[in-house]
Automatic annotation (TrEMBL), chains A, B:
Segments forming domain Casparian strip membrane protein: 9-138
Name the UniProt record assigns to this protein: CASP-like protein
Residue intervals passing through the bilayer: 12-32, 44-68, 80-105, 125-150
Domain of life: Eukaryota
Keywords: Cell membrane, Membrane, Transmembrane, Transmembrane helix
Membrane topology, as annotated: Multi-pass membrane protein
């Protein structure tokens, strides 16, 4: 039962996925939070909340992967894998929702109110939404790859 | 191989799911389209596009289900099941994205511009977003139930 499916928990592909997820989600968080008053719009606060959940989750999974790749191979437990799949799944839905809300609100702000949105701020919102989409994509592929493995356990 | 998992294609539970999906997606489409100029906002046009895809898809699946339940049991083919799973999957993501965008834009319109959004229009937007969320939920559960069956084929 120790065949190596690439992308499942504890492999180097999974380490790369989770590192990318960490980078994108924290970039999205920073673009949205730093020096911007994001809390006047509901969607932006929601994005900050979700990315604040995604970042520690992907950091801890990346740590587990790094331990398993570099130090000592961990035995594969179905219960742990199930928790990882469900968590990734829920967070991928939440981050898709947050990314869509942010993108649509930003596009509305660009269209309607020039006064609400100086061009510098608006491009930061757009960058933040793009990073959230990338983070969603990575966590979704991680879910799919782990789900692939589940029936074989 | 003819055990009856409830909710998979061709059972009465699946018929109920797809009928509900048809009702909710067409309700969302009607609330958004009828007598409203939806095309001035990107998210609303997107919602109309996605719901215009979801409605015929769920109608055709409901017809397949009804044929299988009431007239003649169809043999289960892995290829057809795979197409149904992938289609449901993609449409569930699209409708989640559309529902989130519509909800966030509506909430922004309610907050910011009273002049842009008379209260009657705004409640219709909100109803449309709620219907889109319900339609997403049904198509997502249909995906999950069919996915459950796939490894046994």
């Amino acid at each position: 039962m120790m065949e190596q499916v690439p992308g499942t928990l504890g492999t180097s592909a999974s380490l790369a996925l989770h590192l990318g997820q960490t980078i994108f989600s924290s970039a999205s968080l920073l673009f949205m939070c730093l020096d911007v008053e994001f809390y006047s719009y509901t969607s932006f606060s929601y994005l900050v909340t979700v990315m604040g959940l995604v970042t520690p989750w992907s950091v801890s999974l990346a740590l587990v992967d790094a331990y398993s790749v570099f130090i000592k191979r961990l035995p594969r437990q179905p219960r742990v894998l199930l928790i990882v799949i469900v968590g990734d799944w829920a967070l991928s839905f939440l981050s898709l929702a947050a990314a869509c809300s942010t993108a649509s609100v930003t596009s509305l702000l660009v269209d309607v109110g020039k006064s609400n949105c100086p061009s510098k701020l608006c491009s930061r919102y757009q960058l933040s939404a793009a990073m959230a989409f990338l983070s969603w994509f990575l966590s979704f592929s991680s879910t799919l790859l782990n789900l692939w493995l589940l029936p074989s356990l």
